[in-house]
Amino acid sequence: MGVTASFADIDNDGDQDLFVTTVRGGNVLFENDGKGHFKDISKAAGVDYVGHSSGAVFFDYDNDGLLDFYLCNVGRYTTDVKGRGGAYEGLDDAFMGNLHPDRSERGILYKNMGRNQFKNVTADVGLGDTGWSGDASVVDVNGDGFADLYVLNMQGSNHLYENVGGKKFVDSTAKSKLSENALGRHGHQVFRLRQRRPSRSADHGHAFGHGRVVGPSSEKLKARIQMDESMLGGPKSRYIFGNAFYANRGNGKFEEISDRVGAENFWPWGPSTGDFNADGWQDVFIASSMNFPYRYGVNSLLLNNRGEKFLDSEFLLGIEPRRGTRTAHVLVRPRLFDGRSRTAQTLAECRPGSVQRTDRKVRIMAPLGTRSSVVFDLNQDGALDIVTNEFNSAPQVFVSDPRAAAADPLAESRIGRHGLEPQRAWRDRARVRGGPGSSRSGTTASPATCRRACCRCISGSAI
Ligand SMILES: [Ca+2]
Ligand SMILES: [Ca+2]
Ligand SMILES: [Ca+2]
Ligand SMILES: [Ca+2]
After folding, report:
1. 148-163 pLDDT, tens per residue?
2. What mean pLDDT is predicted for residues 373-377?
3. Has residue 342 got a pLDDT over 70?
4. 211, 225 in Cβ contact below 8 A?
């Protein structure tokens, strides 16, 4: 079962090679021959680790010109029983892995030795994070020229590891004032909230607030329902029950300012960043929604208003509602819901509201939900587009269409009142491709690209 895919040029020959992580199937490194073919070199390269792997982050930690990478391993959450399709079935208490240290799997730092050979140097450099980690980010927090490592932990504390001269990593979480973490974090992105200022980082974790009705005045606040400390494995004071946004205050110190800048949203999975309206300020798309058995949650597109506050813009710019205003797909069809399927009965009992009865037929509906996204200039017209990865459904492709935005005076006036820069004629824009800030989950475009963007969904769920 594949989990993530990362492209990186491991041999500096100018083409992107591919690393794929799996759940107990062995990770796979493919070398790109530059002619459209990929060759599996995992075993010879020494990176065929078998476990519960997740994100892989490529960076040159020792500045020797060769890309190394950090592999995030979650921890054992499967049994040895294989289900239909050959995947291992999950443990009943898979989400409580943080309470079982014996199930942890350490993250691995692989040093690129050249000639497509990698060496596990985790212990040599003082790493060995045992968190329930799905992803990590690379950022030079102290500006010393060596990339530091921020490792996410879904069920515990994140950690910032400071890179000491490309030889050692030192845990500087407490020193950096990053000890208070968003609970249930899955995604993280480092970007500049303000121009020509130190970088900020956004950290998105589940709020666990879905069980209570919230009104418009409090929907952007942190969750009131908090997990019991027996489930957290530590004091509540260590956690933020919602999203976190850390402002880099210099000297390696951070301050959490998510509520102040309006970075909260509904059931997030992870952020991607890009300057969607090309006003020079980085904006954020947050993949969201938990799917069955929870209600539908909207994806968020937060426009950065001059570095002061994010503005909810998903309904203005065409991200929501989805094409055809669809919020759900068929989870179980009538032929399976005939009284004989225990699975169908269990699902129906799990959320009675999901059962639809029409013309004597019965089906179970499940909310749609996005789990990840990538931001890049898909059609190479100079404006950033968004492609999503949907849980149990087809991807969405949002193509930025500035001319559609120009024809929508409502969207224009609303954004204008909030202080974003006025739109420049689309014909005056420069045709510039995505800039140098590309990353796995986001791409930064030149500020000169265009002034406004409006997204048009050209491909939605197939159901
Ligand atoms: Ca290559
Ligand atoms: Ca290196
Ligand atoms: Ca550094
Ligand atoms: Ca912007």
Report:
1. 999 988 877 889 999 9
2. 93
3. no
4. yes
Residues with beta carbon < 5 A to ion ligand 2? 60, 62, 64, 66, 68
pTM for the full model?
Answer: 0.76
Q: Which ligand is nearest to the CA of 9?
A: 1
From the CA of 451, how far away is ligand 4's center (Å)? Answer: 8
What is the 183 CA–ligand 3 centroid distance (Å)? 26
> Which residues fall inside 5 Å of ion ligand 3, going by CB?
140, 142, 144, 146, 148
Is 385:376 a contact under the CB 8 Å cutoff? yes
Least distant ligand from the CA of 114: 2
